Amino acid sequence: MLDRIQLKRQAKAITRSARVSAYLFTLLYLAIANALQLLDTYMSGSMVRYIQMYMPEMPVPEFLMRVSNIPGTVTLFVSVMVMLLVAVLNAGCVLYHLGVRRGEEMGFTTLFDGFAFVGKVILLDLAVTVSIWLWSMLFVIPGIIAAYRLRFAVYNLCENPEIGVMEAMSLSTLQTNGHKMDLFVLDLTFLGWQLLCVLTLGIMNIWVAPYVLQTNVGYFQQLKQMKGVGWFPPQDDGGSSGAKDPYDPEF
User: Fold this and answer.
1) Domain extent listing, the chain
2) DSSP secondary structure of 42-89
3) pLDDT tens digit sequence for 103-125
4) What residue ranges of the chain have pLDDT lower than 70?
5) pTM score, two decimals?
């Protein structure tokens, strides 16, 4: 078991010391992600249905009614594109926090760096989503376990975009083996903060989200060191780097 208290203290210190404000970076991410979600909600007609169901006495604005004339294929396309774009932005957030932990200056444009390997990001997001969904078909618990098993798949891909989607998932499976309950407990320690985010209509996410993500990055890095599984940066002595083979007999 890793020291959660120490991890969280370290995450706070690293987040605050970021050369480019982690809070402004998160604000940029939330602004774009929420704008995309709002577009999806508008195109799907959800706003109209909400007004008609819960506020029937209120006239529906004309600009909202226009979506009823939009073909279903168009709204489906928009929904899929929004989902994929958010996945790429999420990868950008991971790239930012990985770099901050290394002591690097990560600019605001890092949010869009996931587009450099957008194909793999999208394929990984789809593979993880399908995997969790299939396990959830058996029961809720297997789906939750699958989510924790694949928790660090995108972290592995962001650290080393040269690896494949399945390898990123396999590395995450090995890294989280024996630590899923620890991760679950770690998530429970953030419940109070998450509730505060809900009560403030998401505003507190500007400060809470980078803290949570940086804590997870710290957990990920410590698991890599403990198990020797994952990508490691080049050594100063000229040693080789790269992902250790998890199937090496010496592991």
Assistant:
1) 17-229
2) HHHTHHHHHHHHH-TTSPPPHHHHGGGGS-HHHHHHHHHHHHHHHHHH
3) 999 999 999 999 999 999 999 99
4) 1, 45-52, 54-57, 60-70, 235-251
5) 0.85
